[in-house]
Design goal:
The chain is an alpha/beta fold and 492 residues long. Helices cover 28% and strands 21% of the residues.
Length: 492
């Protein structure tokens, strides 16, 4: 297929990704552990986790997981906010050959039961305050190992295991996270044989429609996304280089694919430090945590950008080296982008992606000085097509369903071949359910969700456009457009 976007690429950005560089996500992570051992990988509420400590602690925890009978391919859930324990658990699960299942900590018992049962998770690492939710559904799942962490857990390689009793509350057999990790130092570890086509993560999503499903992300799926995103990031970082280590704001939740890939894993790949924000709703606390740092990369969604620019203390942060403000997850509104640029001096670089594409698959150039109102160009290795209702490509400038092909696309929905078949074309494109337009240069613009269209007297009205106009008014902070029945304006 023709790829007009390649002509718009910054100099030095490749058209493809190299999947021969790493054998698995484990070798990618271990490469960073070795290169950046003395650097901080994560900082959170005054505590730091170096790459070297991340290496040792995750390896010990991997040994503990194996000692409990967990083997290659077993699913292990992680149900925590943004804390250093999260990346330790993720690296340990992958190193043990198991599959990470990211879980929203705010799930209701019904939602949690569905995800644990559907994934067949055999173990869960969970923050103590969410244990009561787990206790209500545990017997209805395959989970046998419960590891409970606390916000105050402090881990250092070689420290003695804590003497305090398990903090599982009503789950009597629960084990404290520090006890499991420290106990793992005395246990053997067997390195599993991992391949690029092995499953790394089950990332749950509502998909284009229907019940929550697990998007199967292979080791190569995530590696491809990290490689393409890293290549795309370089021009922006060269434009305004960091004088020290690259500081990445991680205020988005790690259980969501955006932060999981773009913050946690991409930050690690690049040797940066993630500034973990456990509760971004506490903007006073968030700004206080960011004050000591020169911010270099700031991924966020429109609502977070909007909330911050209206906070009186936000403008006091150091934006002198802010190179990339990456917007995604939802449309960034022009009024928000304009004000963000005024405050920070850095334009919002909007992108687009889905759980099924392991996060971002299009993005505006990171060396751009303006907000384009588009979601940019397909990243290296990604093909994007605009299809009509018959599945045929439409002309540039015409709306249609966005379809994506490339190694960044999931292998399918976990144990749901019927649902997978609904969203995949015969030639390997994933149908996103989003309506978009590609211009002659290869830039893409999201019009709206395919099923969110409002019909007014037979005309298509997109809520996204109405909302964008409404928030241009200085008296409007946020807006949502919802279609309601009307006897005079029914479809004819």
């Amino acid at each position: 297929m023709e790829k007009p976007w390649l002509r718009q690429y910054p100099e030095g950005v490749p058209a493809t990704v190299d999947l021969t560089q790493y054998a698995s996500m484990v070798t990618l992570l271990e490469d960073s552990f070795s290169k950046y051992a003395e650097r901080d990988a994560y900082v959170c509420m005054g505590r730091a986790l170096t790459y070297g400590a991340w290496d040792k602690l995750s390896l010990a925890f991997a040994g503990w997981l194996q000692s409990r009978g967990l083997a290659k391919g077993d699913r292990v859930a992680v149900m925590m906010p943004n804390l250093p324990q999260y990346p330790i658990a993720v690296a340990a699960i992958l190193r043990a050959g198991c599959v990470v299942v990211n879980v929203n900590p705010l799930y209701t018992p019904r939602e949690l039961e569905h995800q644990l049962a559907d994934s067949g998770a055999r173990a869960i690492i969970i923050l103590d305050m969410f244990v009561p939710t787990l206790a209500k559904v545990l017997e209805k799942t395959a989970v046998t190992e419960v590891v409970v962490s606390s916000v105050t857990d402090s881990l250092q390689p070689g420290a003695p295991a804590p003497a305090e009793p398990p903090a599982g509350g009503v789950i009597a057999h629960a084990v404290r996270f520090p006890a499991a990790v420290m106990g793992g130092f005395a246990l053997p570890f067997t390195r599993p044989e991992l391949a690029l086509d092995d499953i790394a993560v089950l990332q749950y999503t509502g998909g284009t429609t229907g019940v929550s499903k697990g998007a199967v992300l292979l080791h190569k799926t995530i590696i491809a996304n990290l490689q393409s995103a890293e290549s795309w990031m370089h021009p922006g970082l060269k434009r305004r280089p960091a004088t020290g280590q690259m500081n990445v704001v991680c205020a988005l939740p790690l259980y969501h694919v955006f932060a999981f890939i773009t913050c946690a894993l991409l930050g690690a790949r690049a040797g940066g430090v993630n500034i973990l924000i456990p509760n971004p709703r506490d903007m006073d606390g968030m700004i206080a945590q960011l004050k000591p740092y020169k911010i270099n990369v700031f991924p966020a969604v429109n609502t977070l950008f909007n909330g911050l620019i209206h906070h009186p203390g936000f403008a006091e942060l150091d934006f002198s080296e802010l190179a990339i403000s990456n917007g995604g997850g939802m449309a960034v509104q022009e009024a928000v982008a304009r004000r963000w640029l005024e405050v920070t001096g850095c334009p919002i670089c909007e992108g687009y992606g889905l759980t099924e594409t392991s996060s971002g698959i299009t993005c505006n150039r990171t060396d751009s000085e303006e907000f384009t109102g588009t979601v940019g160009l397909p990243l290296p290795g990604v093909e994007v097509a605009i299809l009509d209702d018959e599945g045929l490509p439409v002309a540039a400038g015409s709306p249609g369903e966005i379809a994506i092909r490339g190694p960044q696309v999931m292998a399918g929905y976990w144990m749901r071949p019927d649902e997978t078949a609904k969203v995949m074309t015969a030639d390997g494109f994933f149908k996103s359910g989003d309506i978009g337009i590609m211009d002659e240069r290869g830039y893409f613009r999201i019009v709206d969700r395919k099923k969110d269209m409002i019909l007014v007297s037979g005309f298509n009205v997109f809520p996204n456009e109405i909302e964008g106009v409404a928030v241009m008014h200085p008296g409007v902070l946020e807006a949502a457009a919802v279609g309601v029945p009307d006897d005079k304006l029914v479809r004819r």
